[in-house]
């Protein structure tokens, strides 16, 4: 396990960001993920996709950070989706029911297409 986590951000469409997460998401690094994602949302990108392909490990603190990011995105009338989720993390999402709250996509391209093809959260009310 490493105690470093890196976020690389792309902005393929207005209001949409893809954050590629590289590293383990645990009690030591979950605050970095959460604060980085919240900053992306605060900077005007409330629709966020997390590319998790490079995540080797995620514990309950990481899961909590993901849920907190989802709440923040919704509060900003945006959304959170996950892409390239490793099998081990997908099992955790399924066991906890988080996969029923968050859209999970096979690729970041699928996540972007799903977000850009759907109306904003405020239009769904």
UniProtKB/TrEMBL annotation:
NCBIfam families cross-referenced by the UniProt entry: ant_ant_sig (TIGR00377)
Domain STAS per the UniProt entry, residue ranges: 14-115
Protein name as it appears in the record: Anti-sigma factor antagonist
Source organism, top-level taxon: Bacteria
A matching Pfam family: STAS
Organism whose genome encodes this protein: Streptomyces bullii
Family note: Belongs to the anti-sigma-factor antagonist family.
